[in-house]
Structure formats: C-alpha cells, structure tokens
C-alpha cells in the first residue's frame, strides 16, 4: 500500500529525512518510532503531499506523492499532532464541515457523522463547543475527523501527546479497532510502549535515518535476549569483581556503563543471589540495582547511544 | 479546476463561526453603526452645524450702515459659503493670493463711502474677485447679483416716488404709475458690480455638505478593513494548529483554498458593507449618487482588497499576537493616511497624493465622487483600476504564501 525508497527531505543544509526506505502492507499498523526531531513528522508531511520530497520516491496505493498528489490525497486521512479542529464549533459542525469538504452531503453525511461520534464516544457532547472538551475528548474527535471520508490510509502523528493515561488508553483502543477493520495506519510516536503495544511492524528513526526496521521480536533480537543488570560498585572493587564473574557461563561483564557496573545475564533472576552473596562477602551493600529486560528502548540506546526521550 | 463545493463549505464555515461569536458580531455591525452615528454627530453638518468647514467669502467693507447690511443680508445664510466681514482694507494682491491658494472662495470690496454715494444718487461700484470654476465662488456672484438687483429695484422705486412727491398734487387727485420714468431710473442703477475672475482652471471642488457624507462611507471602509485584518489571526491559528495542513492535505487544491478563504472574507465584508450602506441611508438620509454600478464596484473592490490583505497577513504573521498587532497597525495607518478619519480634500497636496495611492484613499475618494460630484463609472475608472491593481497584487501574494506556509 505504501512504498518508500531512499526518501530525502532537506531544509537548507539540514537533511531532516535522509534516505529512508520502508513499505507498509494494506491493513498493517506501522509504527514510526523516534525522539522529537528525528524526522517522523517530516516523513508524514511528505507522505501527506504537504512537502515535496527532495530525493527518492514515495507512493501510496500506487500513486506517487510528488507526481500525482491529488490521487494520493483522496486515499489518505491525517491526524496531526495538534488539535486541528475549529474549537469554537461543536463536534458535529466540525465533522459536517470536513465531510462536506470531501463532497459528502445529505443522509450519507449525517449517518457517517453519527457513526464517528459514536466511535469517539462523543454523542452526548456533540452539540457542545470543542473548546469545552477535555484533552482526551479533543484527541478522540481529532482522530475521527481524519476518518470522515473513509480513507484507505491513515497517518496518526503522535495522537496521544499531552493526555492522561486513561484518555491515552481509550485512544489506543480506538486505533486497535481501526487497524482491525483493515485500515492501513502509519503511527508516529516517541512512546515505545505505544509502539510495542500497537504496531505490527516498527521503523526506528533517528536524525532522519531509519536505524532499525522489523516487527517487535525481530528488533529486540537485534539487542540479544540477555538481561542487563546494573548496580553501584566502588571503583576499588571493579578488578576484583571482573575476575570473579568473567569466568562464568551465564553472564558477561560489560564494564562500567552510565556510572554503574553492568552485567549481561542469560537469566538475571538466577544470577542475582550470587551477586548479592559476593557483595556481602566483600562487606559491600548491593545498591542502585537495575535489572532491564531487552526492549525497544534498549535497542534504541544501543543504536543511537541516546534515550528516546532525551 | 475550481471545486465550488469546497468554496461553498469554506464560506459557510466562516459565516457560521462569525454568527456563533457574539464578539465578532459586535465588531462586524454594532461598532460601525455606533461610530458612524457618534462621529457624524461630533463633526456636525457641513451645511449648518459647522460653518467653519465652508469655503470663505471675504467681504472688505471699511464703511458700515444699513445699506451695506441690506446688501449683504442675502449672503449671510448660505449652504455653499460663509461670510467673513472685515472693516479694514486688505490689499488686492493679498486677496488674489488667498484666492489662488483656496484660502477664500471670493472677495467682495465695498467702498467706504458706499452709503454716501447712494445718498448722492451717484453710482456705487462694488468689486468682486472670484473663480468661475468653483461652485461656491459662482454662488457668491449669483447671490450678490440678486441682492444688487433687488437693491437697485428698490432704489429706482424710491427715486420715482421722490420725483412724484416733488410735483404738486391737487386734493383727491391720484397719479398713475409712471412706467417710463421708472424704466429710466432702472436703467441707471445706483449699484453695479465689477466682477473679476481669476480665470484659473481648477478641478471641481469638494462638494460634500454634510458630515455623514464622509463619515458614513469612511467607517464602512474602515470597519470592513479592520474586521477582516483582525480576523487574519484565525488563519495564523489554523496554520499553527495544522487545520490548514489538514485542509491542504484534503482534496482541496491551493486555488480552492485561496478562493475559499478569499470568498469567505469577501462575503463577510459585503454583508457588513451592505448592512451599513442601508443603515446610513435610512438613519442619516445618505444619498450615494446616481451610479449604482459605481457603488457596487467600489464596495466589491473594497471588500476584495480587504479580504486579500487579510489572507496575506494571515500567511505572513508568525503568531496570532503578531497578526493582531500588524493588522491594527496597517488598518490605522491606511485609515489615517487614506483619509478615512478626515477628508483627503483638507490635507496638504503631497499627503493627498500619498493617500490616493492607498486603497483606502482610492475607495473613499470614489465614495466622495459618487456622493458629492455625481460621477459615474467612466469618471471613476482610474480609481477603480487602482483598487483593482491593489486587489490583484494582494491576492497573488496571498496565493503564493498560503501554500508555502501551510505548515506554519
């Protein structure tokens, strides 16, 4: 459904999108994961025909975004990160406006508006001005406005930014439902738990480049399946510790990582009692202990040396 | 290919948003009406309330007397000029200069011995300096000639009566009106006018006579411009919250969007102007002249220029606060320099030139020409073309900037 080959977008000398390639199958929910400024929104802007690409190609449903933008626009719906609504109007008027803009009218428009209000759980508040809504209600309306014309592809650009956990859960639930209905979705986020929870496949983007691509398991395999154990160890004990643990089969001593001693263990839970015993024997306390299962954050850290929220 | 469904949706949306917003309605209709009424009252009527705004007819009359008062009486209350009577002599060179620089519209010299001359039954010449191209100046001459004619008729009748009284009349005898004698006296007038025109060729003078004739259209132009410039912040907000991006990514083309925004703004401007035109006509009895086509064109172009300027401002401003500040600054400057707060006709010539280069100056001058001079489309065409040029430039820039800045 979506094919992107070596896509480039420059702003002056800055390459905001630097030769990324990926494809998304029909009905797939594809996550574009990366920190702020990684190039996610720029990619969405190019795919939405809002920005012309400076290199490479991108096609939606077989239509080139640069060569046939009108055909692309008929296929896509966008849900911007911002609340792109007329806040001085009620939800129903907003939906009616966007529906008319897409050439809908009469009974078909009325039915679609009611269907989307139901989907967003906003039927009771449909006559109230959007500015009186809570953050979660605005986000839900923002999302369903992108669906008014029943697009084949939906771009969701960080649709849960700035809302509480409960409201976020409702939005994610809604997106799951949409994905299940056969809609092709590109979902950008810097919340890795959202990407892990929702997406069939994930592309990890950093400084405009795609640094990893695959389904969740494939990506985690790239970091290996070892647990990361970190704890505080006085400098004087480092050599002693390394000698004691480097001969073991069930772990590898990585060294000092972010100010702490790090071990990579095939089973962290089984190694911890041995570690506790050794520290006690040395007259030390096991302090500032961290045990980390491999996840996308680990992958991102490994690939970029930075956290997703840094 | 323009999509009229999209244009209709955008116009309907804009009107719906305004109708739902009480503050907008206040600035759209209530404030223009209040300002037109208050300013009309404050500035008074040029025909009555404020004689100071009428052209001045200087009367140099070192002498006095009932004869002088009688001569000047018909010139006292006139809608076209006001009398400025001086009892000291002013040199003719000075008077000519004042006339040339439009400080006065005419100057009448009444000899110091005017009354005595009449008493001696000798001729009394009056000297008038005027400008035959100016309506108020012509009016001075006409009214003065009527006054002299009346005075001469009375003088001829008195001479006839005096002559009759000198002849003896028997008791019970009456005498018939001696027409031949009266005609003799009539053909030998006591007072006559020596009029001298400067012969200067001048465009037709400012012919508005009531404050509402300026204030009415000026506040229509001002509030149409102000309301639309103030609404530019909505476009900035749509850029910032990416509603505009959503629109651009919809099936609407750039042309659809620009036309949609433009027609939406223009519709608002036309509704505002239409209502104010009718109210000015009903409340202040304002007559917009005979050229309906001229009136329609100036209103259309004014709303069009304001709407295009609003889109351009909405695309240029970086924030809603900046749009508000810039919009207000541009509106106030255009209003002041363009002659919306006071008629351009009363400002120095170089400021008139600058004012008439601005769309506000062109629009108000067209209104003045319609109302005060009864011009039609043919006479208005240079100014209408000027407004059209402004419109073309602004809408072209707005189209260019809208697509470029859709992403905020």
Task: List the main descriptive attributes of the protein structure presented here.
heterodimer; A: 310 residues; alpha/beta; Rossmann fold; Alpha-Beta Plaits; 2 domains; 11 helices; 36% helix; elongated; B: 408 residues; abc type-2 transporter like fold; 5 strands
Q: How does this structure look, described?
A:
The complex is a heterodimer of chains A (310) and B (408). Chain A is built from eleven helices and 14 strands. With 310 residues, chain A is α/β, with parallel strands linked by helices. Chain A has two domains: 2-221, Rossmann fold, CATH 3.40.50.300; 226-293, Alpha-Beta Plaits (2-Layer Sandwich). Chain A has a six-stranded mixed β-sheet with strand order 6-7-8-3-9-10, with helices on both faces. Chain A has a four-stranded antiparallel β-sheet with strand order 2-1-4-5, covered by helices on one side. In chain A, a hairpin with a 2-residue loop joins strand 9 and strand 10 (209-214). In chain A, helix 8 packs across helix 11 (296-304). Chain A starts with a strand and ends in a 6-residue tail after the last helix. Chain B is elongated and about 110 Å long. Chain B has helices at residues 4-19, 22-43, 66-76, 92-100, 114-119, 135-166, 179-186, 211-230, 232-240, 243-248, 254-284, 292-316, 320-337, 349-357, 359-372, 377-404, and strands at residues 56-60, 82-86, 106-109, 124-130, 191-197. Chain B is 65% helix and 7% strand. In chain B, strands 2-1-3-4-5 form a five-stranded mixed β-sheet, with helices on both faces. The longest helix of chain B is centred in the middle third of the chain and has 32 residues, at 135-166. In chain B, helix 1 (4-19) crosses helix 11 (254-284) and helix 8 packs antiparallel against helix 13. Chain B folds into two domains: 4-46 and 208-404, no CATH class; 52-197, abc type-2 transporter like fold, CATH 3.40.1710. Chains A and B meet through helix 2 and helix 3 of A and helix 1 and helix 10 of B.
């Amino acid at each position: 459904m979506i094919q992107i080959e070596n896509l480039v977008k420059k702003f002056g000398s800055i390459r905001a999108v630097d030769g990324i390639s990926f494809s998304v199958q029909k009905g797939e929910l594809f996550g574009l994961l990366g920190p702020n400024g990684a190039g996610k929104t720029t990619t969405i802007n190019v795919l939405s025909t809002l920005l012309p690409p400076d290199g490479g190609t991108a096609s939606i449903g077989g239509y080139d975004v640069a060569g046939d933008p009108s055909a692309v626009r008929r296929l896509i719906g966008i849900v911007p990160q911002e609340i792109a609504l007329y806040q001085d109007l009620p939800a129903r008027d907003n939906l009616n406006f966007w529906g008319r803009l897409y050439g809908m009218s009469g009974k078909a428009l009325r039915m679609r508006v009611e269907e989307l209000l139901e989907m967003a759980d906003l039927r009771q508040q449909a006559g109230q001005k959007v500015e009186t809504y809570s953050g979660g209600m605005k986000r839900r309306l923002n999302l369903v406005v992108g669906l008014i014309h029943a697009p084949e592809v939906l771009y969701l650009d960080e649709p849960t930014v700035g809302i509480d956990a409960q409201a976020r859960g409702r939005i994610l639930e809604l997106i799951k439902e949409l994905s299940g209905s056969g809609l092709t979705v590109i979902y950008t986020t810097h919340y890795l738990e959202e990407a892990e929870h929702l997406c069939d496949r994930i592309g990890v983007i950093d400084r405009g480049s795609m640094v990893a691509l695959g389904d969740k398991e494939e990506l985690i395999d790239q970091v290996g399946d070892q647990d990361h154990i970190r704890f505080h160890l006085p400098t004087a004990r480092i050599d002693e510790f390394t000698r004691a643990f480097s001969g073991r089969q069930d772990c590898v001593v990585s060294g000092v990582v972010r100010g702490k001693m790090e071990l990579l263990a095939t089973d962290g839970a089984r190694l911890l009692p041995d570690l506790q015993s050794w520290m006690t024997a040395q007259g030390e306390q096991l302090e500032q202990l961290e045990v980390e299962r491999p996840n996308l954050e680990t992958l991102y850290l490994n690939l970029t040396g930075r956290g997703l929220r840094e | 290919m323009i999509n009229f469904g999209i244009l209709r949706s955008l116009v309907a949306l804009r009107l719906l948003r305004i109708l739902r917003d009480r503050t907008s309605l206040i600035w759209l209709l209530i404030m223009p009406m209040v300002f037109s009424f208050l300013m009309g009252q404050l500035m008074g009527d040029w025909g009555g309330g404020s004689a100071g705004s009428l052209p001045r007819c200087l009367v140099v009359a070192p002498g006095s007397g009932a004869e002088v008062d009688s001569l000047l009486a018909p010139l006292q209350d006139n809608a076209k000029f006001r009398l400025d009577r001086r009892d000291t002599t002013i040199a003719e060179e000075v008077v000519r200069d004042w006339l040339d620089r439009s400080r006065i519209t005419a100057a009448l010299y009444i000899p110091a011995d005017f009354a005595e001359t009449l008493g001696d039954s000798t001729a009394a010449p009056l000297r008038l300096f005027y400008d035959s191209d100016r309506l108020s100046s012509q009016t001075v001459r006409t009214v003065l000639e009527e006054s002299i004619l009346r005075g001469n008729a009375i003088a001829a009748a008195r001479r006839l009566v005096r002559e009759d009284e000198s002849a003896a009349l028997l008791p019970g005898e009456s005498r018939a009106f001696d027409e031949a004698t009266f005609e003799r006296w009539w053909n030998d007038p006591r007072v006559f006018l020596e009029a001298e025109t400067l012969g200067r060729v001048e465009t037709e003078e400012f012919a508005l006579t009531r404050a509402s004739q300026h204030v009415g259209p000026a506040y229509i132009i001002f509030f149409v411009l102000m309301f639309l410039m103030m609404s530019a912040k909505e476009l900035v907000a749509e850029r910032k919250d990416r509603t505009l991006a959503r629109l651009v990514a919809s099936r609407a083309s750039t042309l659809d969007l620009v036309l949609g925004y433009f027609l939406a703004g223009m519709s608002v401007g036309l509704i505002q102007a239409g209502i104010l035109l009718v109210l000015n006509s009903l409340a202040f009895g304002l007559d917009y002249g005979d050229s309906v086509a001229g009136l329609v064109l100036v209103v259309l172009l004014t709303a069009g220029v304001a709407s295009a300027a609003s889109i351009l401002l909405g695309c240029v401003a970086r924030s809603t606060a900046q749009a508000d500040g810039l919009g207000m600054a541009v509106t106030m400057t255009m209003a002041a320099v363009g002659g919306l707060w006071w008629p351009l006709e009363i400002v120095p010539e170089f400021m008139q030139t600058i004012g008439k280069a601005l769309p506000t100056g062109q629009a108000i001058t067209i209104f003045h020409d319609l109302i005060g001079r009864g011009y039609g489309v043919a006479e208005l065409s240079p100014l209408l073309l000027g407004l059209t040029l402004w419109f073309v430039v602004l809408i072209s820039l707005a189209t260019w900037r809208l697509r470029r800045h859709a992403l905020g």
